[in-house]
Amino acid sequence: MILQARQHVWTLPRPAWVMGIVNVTPDSFSDGGRYLDPAAAEAHAFELAAQGADLIDIGGESTRPFASPVSEAEELRRVLPVIERLAGRLPIPLSIDTRKAAVARRAIDAGAVMVNDVGAARPDPAMAALVAETGAAYVAMHMQGDPSTMQIRPAYDDVLGAVGAFFADCLEGLARLGVKPDQVVLDPGIGFGKNLGHNLELLAGLSSFKRFDRPLLLGVSRKSFLGQLLGLEVGERLPGALACAGWAVLAGAQIVRTHDVKATVAAVRTTEAILLHQRPCSGIN
Question: Active-site residue 64, yes or no?
């Protein structure tokens, strides 16, 4: 399997990537406002790289439940100074977390090599054309509804089937618009239009998505389903997130997106070390 992200071409399988989150927003659920200043965001990105991050994902629009969208101009005002400060200086690739093709274009022009699109369930032909033109990697995430509505009674007959059908349709649609399969990463969208049961079903069935022969990205960092499951506030959810990260790697995920890079790197590398010593007769799939 190959993953292309502009000038970067990786052959998989390989050690899983840990993607560090830099939210340049005033209202993200976990760290809103902490890195709104470009200098603070820059310093945080370098700190995450020093902790072992393989990628940095920069976002200027909160996608927490019930969040309101921001304008293209405001999103650009938030993210571009950060990308411009980091591109060519940070020794790891940059990703732009956006639903807007115009924002993605400016971010790629400034140095980003991956587009992390939580809006892929409503495909934007302009976004696909941009990805095809630039050769950027594209994370296609499943979401039922949009951030302002997604947690209002989400419902599925079969959440694994629904997400699998989305992945199949998305890969087919992107290919029609000129995006190579080698550019695509798939994200089941934990917490995006799913209740606690749906999220646990997706985690339990994560390995079923290996059939698409594309890298899987998992983002569970500090999310509310862990609070519901464990009765914990945002700052107390790291142990649950680390359990999910280890499970994801065991299930075949190639990218784990997190606020807590140092701890997640330790969990991921420990899981991989155990897997290297697994014997065929162990009974673990």
Answer: no
Q: Name all domains of the chain by residue range, CATH numbers in brackets.
A: 16-275 (3.20.20.20)
Separation between Cα atoms, residue 29 and residue 249, nearest integer Å:
25
- Of 105, 106, 194, 257, catalytic: 257
Cβ atoms of 271 and 242 closer than 8 Å:
no
Identified catalytic residue from 78, 85, 223, 237: 223
Burial pattern 120-156, b for ≥16 Cβ within 10 A else e, equals bbebbeebbebbbebbbbbbbbbbbbbbeebbeebeb
Distance CA 182, CA 171 (A): 10
CA distance linking residue 185 with residue 140, whole number of Å: 6
pLDDT of 101-153, one tens digit each?
999 999 999 999 999 998 887 777 899 999 999 999 999 999 887 776 767 88
Angle at 203 between CA 198 and CA 207, to 5 degrees: 130
Among candidate residues 179, 181, 79, 201, the one with its CA nearest the CA of residue 132: 179
Tell me whether residue 257 is one of the annotated catalytic residues: yes
pTM here is 0.92
Token pair for residue 275? 């897997």
142 contacts 154 by C-beta, under 8 angstroms: no
